[in-house]
Amino acid sequence: MKRLISIYSLFCLVLFTGRAEDGSRLWLRNTPVTNLPFESISYRGDGGIAVQELQQAWAGMTGSRLPRVDTPQANTLVLKTEKNKPLGKDGFSIRTNETGQTILTAQNETAHLYGIFHLLRLIQTGHTGPFNLTEIPTYSIRILNHWDNLNGTIERGYAGYSLWKWDELPATLSPRYEAYARANASIGINATVLNNVNANPQILSTQYLEKVKAIADIFRPYGIQVYLSVNFASPTVLDGLADADPLRKEVRLWWKNKAKEIYTLIPDFGGFLVKANSEGQPGPQDYGRTHADGANMLAEALKPYKGIVMWRAFVYDPKEPDRAKQAYDEFMPLDGKFHDNVIVQVKNGPVDFQPREPFTPLFGAMKKTPVMAELQITQEYLGFSNHLAYLGTMWEEFLQADTWQAGEGSTVARVTDGTIYPHKLTAISGVANIGEDTNWTGHHFAQANWYAFGRLAWNHNLTAGAIAGEWLRQTFTTNPEFVTPVTELMLQSREAVVNYMMPLGLHHLFAWGHHYGPEPWCDIPGARPDWLPSYYHKASSYGIGFDRTHKGSNAVAQYHAPLSEQFNGINTCPEPYLLWFHHAPWDHRMKNGRILWDELCYKYDTGVQQVRQFQKTWDRMQPYVDTERFLHIQSRLRTQARDAVWWKDACLLYFQQYSKRPVPYDIERPVHELEELKKIKLDMTHHN
Amino acid sequence: MKRLISIYSLFCLVLFTGRAEDGSRLWLRNTPVTNLPFESISYRGDGGIAVQELQQAWAGMTGSRLPRVDTPQANTLVLKTEKNKPLGKDGFSIRTNETGQTILTAQNETAHLYGIFHLLRLIQTGHTGPFNLTEIPTYSIRILNHWDNLNGTIERGYAGYSLWKWDELPATLSPRYEAYARANASIGINATVLNNVNANPQILSTQYLEKVKAIADIFRPYGIQVYLSVNFASPTVLDGLADADPLRKEVRLWWKNKAKEIYTLIPDFGGFLVKANSEGQPGPQDYGRTHADGANMLAEALKPYKGIVMWRAFVYDPKEPDRAKQAYDEFMPLDGKFHDNVIVQVKNGPVDFQPREPFTPLFGAMKKTPVMAELQITQEYLGFSNHLAYLGTMWEEFLQADTWQAGEGSTVARVTDGTIYPHKLTAISGVANIGEDTNWTGHHFAQANWYAFGRLAWNHNLTAGAIAGEWLRQTFTTNPEFVTPVTELMLQSREAVVNYMMPLGLHHLFAWGHHYGPEPWCDIPGARPDWLPSYYHKASSYGIGFDRTHKGSNAVAQYHAPLSEQFNGINTCPEPYLLWFHHAPWDHRMKNGRILWDELCYKYDTGVQQVRQFQKTWDRMQPYVDTERFLHIQSRLRTQARDAVWWKDACLLYFQQYSKRPVPYDIERPVHELEELKKIKLDMTHHN
User: Fold this and answer.
1) Residues of chain A found within 8 Å of residue B668, distances taken between Cβ atoms
2) Over residues A506-527, mean pLDDT
3) Helix, strand and coil in chain A, % to nearest 5
């Protein structure tokens, strides 16, 4: 019989599991396992954080600790520390030998920790050994970017206020700081930027650095390095310097001193993340200097301490006719001009974290400077924490996209991981979706995006499906009756969002005041044109889409052959990117024989039907899921289903004014009025 | 190509038709007809209103008048007045003879008018003659009840304020008074009650009677008799009598004098409609007298002038355990005690105009007193003027219901039309859905309910389908590409409302503040229990429904055998009335094999899917409909589709708390949260 919410059933649940399934434990639930591969453990010294975490998990799974033995026996897990160059700093191997002992080999304590978490993951997902594997992470820096403000709000945060309690720090240390570090370490994340890229200069004040130090001290055992976003004008704000010109001595000195101060407090401080000359932030161009000038000044200051600079390439200008081109135009001339401890951080797509974009052409094109991808884990453009959108598929699509910059197979993954261009510095970043909500991410399924980012950062060849499956098994149950359909749901979910929000290459149809709902009609007098949806969709009685072909903005030319020509041809361009690269006529014939307008209608409708199918799938899962999370997710899916219809109706009714064609008659009809939808003004400027 | 709203297309439309299709012309659009059956007309005298209306219509159809000839020729329409007892007061015959003349025979001018409108209807729906028909109306009084208040509002009115401009009357006469009379005459309606049954005593003041007279003077040529709702306490309010005891001489005299005053002004005044001792209205029971005492006093006052009393049987008491029984219990003992110019007016169902009710058991049971049905044309409980709900099917179901009171075949139609019980006084009333909206009824399709009421009042053997078809042909187009699917839509529409609002005999799940949306959970402290939905649905963990069997309230005993036993048996009761008569367990096995809970879910879902199908059907009709009405109806259907989902979710999520069973997994899932739905409080106390 299905469980319904009631005091009684909640009571039973708590009684049975010992704790509420509120999502706070993430994928680290350590549920009881019947068939365990080890009966004892052997290690030198105190075993450090790795043994500590293993024992804590073991207690969760079995109710007791794993006995320590001095002499390894059959079924003993042996922790071995040894110099092993191929494993690198973070790698490890796990091998079960012929006597039944399992040897976990690594060079240091943090790598042992990764190995332990890997073993625990295998155990929790149903593996019993023997084991024979080697894991070496793809990227050396696997970093979260928190867009957390010092006042506790989070830009594009949909899971409550910031985890970092700046007011209480450093005196009071929330237990969630350690829980956060543990969660990240469990998936191999080894770095984090604590504050928003729209950085408040105060973060570099001595007062705040002491708070940062307190956090860094908690993160250190888990191998998490702390980074900070810095405001380029910090010297003027904090210490009254006349300007922040990166070529001026006083400025350079200021930064050197600041670096020294930081490293005195935090010897393993990671470095700076910088958003400069972008969306109103100060930067070197304010003084006629280049991005390289700015980045190199900071790099110099950090160099003595092995700190690095992550310099963002997210720049665009309202005066330019195609925002998508600007990062490439501005940064390609600087290729090779950055110091070796600078890495350029580039968003996956050339506009801004849309549900679907082609990859930014800087990937692979910038050959002499290391380039790292910035992914967005928080769902700024994919339904906030209301919509179930598993982003593993999006990132897989991105990482496996072929740039052709060094011949076929020059995937984004391979041009950023040091394989094709042998830069020592490799990294990948994800804008965090974490807040102080009990379940960390608002939507329980948004945890999967945090998880998937970590797993892909560790191994970018993992498939989205495999990651979804292992996340589900740890987070809910290993029962295939649950895992199989819900994996399928997850794998479809991002495409569903694309379908009901902006299919066929449409982008940025979002509302002005937020990026949640649709406002393809949005027109704010005096607004930056590149912040208005019509800049992107360009709907007219002729057709729809942004002409980026040779005859248009020629953004296609930023891609390497054969992509440039493929994207340029209306009949060769992959249809998921059609309206990204083309202003196509309404009667453009699609590959399935439909005209564009009809296909657009079917895509929107498909999105709606997909979400309804997700609801059906989820409701059938009730027997396999605790009541608390079942109902929470059920509720969010209901919202998503309503929102999908909202999106569909808004976009179809709006574009129909231009297409002047009927919605195909076998499609479910709109249920809203365009004029009513235009009146919706959500108060979502701040999302906490 | 489909037309979209634009200044240009509206302009073209106006140019072509000569006037906007705003619905103001109802079914009397007189669109051009190619093949006309007459070339001339012949009549005595001035031909009166019949010829006047014919010529006006002819001008609309052809641009010119039908020439009058003294000597009938082939293709002449001849108006003939003759004594013809079988035709009765209102009947007529139309026969085309061998010389090609068509003779319209009737006893008087009004009957000629009916004949002319009948001919025009035939012409407009595609008939070209020859003709050979006789029409004699089913009921002698075919009356609208306006629930219009003297302040211009309308109780349960959803088409704007009242047509009657009491402030302006009698000096200013709105042209819509005549248009109203014409529309009614065109479908055979011959009487109207101008004011709300919750009657303001002022209506009988001399000042108001002069206003009433002005209206009556306009209606008279169209054969429309004016009636008034009267407040039983009028003598006390208007002239300070100590009480309104119907057996007291002064009171009786007061009413006699009032009758005299009325008839002096309005010689053909129809009579009084009375709501007494019902929902707080005063009545004879306030003085220990019976309904018969009260009705007979008024009947006596009206008798000299051939006026009649329509006395409502809509009574119920919060102290009674089953409201549905009370009209029968209170009125059956009075059978035969009313004067012969009293008719008892009984709502079709025993509760109150619900989407589906069984017939009120008084029909057929009350044999010595004439009984008339009160139907509700205005959609108080069927989605106001937002939902498309064609009520022809509901009334057909009601009129053809077999009461068995005089053996098999004692349909409601036959026990009220004088066939089975030979009362001279026969009547049928409909609570009007008319207001000052340009299209009269708010929803264009609500015009069909006004139309269908008139047509059924004239001939209760017409089928709902035939009426829908002729209404569509006159109101939109005779094109079968339009008429066939839209007739089908209309015929399904009321069942769709039943499905998404309250299927399987559920009733009165409406919100407290209005009767639009669902509030099955409604619980107002201190409220009359019989005004709360739980009084009717009685949902519990065991089951749902009102037990009216022998073991329950025994309302089934008010029905004649074999209905009483049929309704009493849970497996013999027709399923559409299951929860009306039974408190059935959630796992009660339905005839299709499903358990009750599942069937309930499927019914709600079917309702939603039906409305979506209506949308599809309607959108396909765009080529056949003017833009103005197409978009208006399209918009209302969108609202209806949203509301259907609202209803489904509200009821299923609420009842699921009791059934504790899942919604069958192949059904579209809820998209709302119960707690959110509970917060919806529409401000709908007054609907103008």
Assistant:
1) 612, 615-616
2) 94
3) 40, 10, 45
Q: Give per-residue pLDDT as tens, A175-189.
A: 999 999 999 999 999
Neighbours of B424 (CB within 10 A): 9
Asked if A266 and A212 touch (Cβ cutoff 8 Å), the reply is: yes
Mutate to test the interface with B, among A3, A598, A616, A671 (most CBs of B within 10 A): A671
Which tokens sit at B619? 């959108």
ipTM score for this prediction: 0.90
Q: Touching check for A616 and chain B: CB below 8 Å? A: yes
How many other C-beta atoms lie within 10 A of the C-beta of residue B175?
A: 8
With CA atoms as reference, report the closest residue to A490 among A470, A464, A451.
Answer: A464
Peptide bond into A282 cis (omega under 30): no
Q: How confident is the model at residue B608 (pLDDT cuts 50, 70, 90)?
A: very high
Residue A479 has pLDDT above 60, yes or no: yes
pLDDT in tens, A283-300: 999 999 999 999 999 999
Query: What are the C-alpha distances in Å from A561 to residues A365, A557, A581?
Result: 12, 9, 15
Amino acid identity, position B345: Q
Supply A653's token pair: 């009714």
A320 confidence band (pLDDT: 50, 70, 90): confident
Q: Which residues contact A47 (CB under 8 A, 6 or more apart)?
A: A41, A79
Tell whether B388 is within 8 A of chain A (Cβ).
no
pTM to 2 decimal places: 0.93
Q: List the one residue out of A201, A394, A343, A401 whose CA is nearest residue A282.
A: A201
What residues in A contact B619, CB-CB < 8 Å? 662-663, 665, 669
Q: Which residue of A has its CA nearest to B617?
A: A665
Nearest to A223 by CA among A258, A251, A252, A183: A183
Owner of token pair 């009480």: B243
Sign of the Cα pseudo-torsion (B250, B256, B262, B265, in order): negative
pLDDT band at residue B1 using 50, 70 and 90 as cut-offs: very low
DSSP B92: E
Phi/psi for A274 (5° steps) reads -130, 125
Residues 3-42 of A with CB under 8 A from B: 4
B1 touches chain A (CB under 8 A): yes
What is the distance of C-alpha B250 from the center of its chain? 37
Q: Which residues of A183-217 are buried (b: 16+ CB within 10 A; e: fewer)?
A: bbbbbbbbbbbbbbbebbbebbbeebbebbbbbbe
Do B620 and A673 make contact, defined as CB atoms within 8 angstroms?
A: no
Give the strand pairing for A40-42 and B40-42.
Answer: unpaired
Tokens of A484: 């199989």
Query: Are B644 and B608 spatial neighbours (Cβ–Cβ below 8 Å)?
Result: yes
Q: How far is A664 from chain B, CA to nearest CA, in Å?
A: 9
Show the beta-strand stretches assigned E in B435-500. none
For residue B103, the Cα-to-chain-centroid distance in whole angstroms is 33
Whole-angstrom distance, CA of residue B327 vs CA of residue B314: 6
* Chain A residues close to B639, C-beta within 8 Å: 671
Type of residue numbered A217: D
Question: Residues B32, B68: contact at Cβ < 8 Å?
Answer: no
All residues of chain A having their beta carbon less than 8 Å from the beta carbon of residue B672 are 638, 642
Residues 646-685 on A with a CB inside 8 Å of B are 656-657, 660-663, 665-666, 668-673
Q: Percent helix, strand and coil across chain B, each rounded to 5?
A: 40, 10, 45
CB contacts < 8 A (A, B): 69
3-state secondary structure A276-337: CCCCCCCCHHHHCCCHHHHHHHHHHHHHHHCCEEEEECCCCCCCCCCHHHHHHHHHHHHCCC
Q: What was the pLDDT predicted at B440? A: 98
Question: φ and ψ at A133, to 5 degrees?
Answer: -150, 155
**B671, closest residue in chain A (CA to CA):** A638
For this structure, is A380 an active site residue? Answer: yes
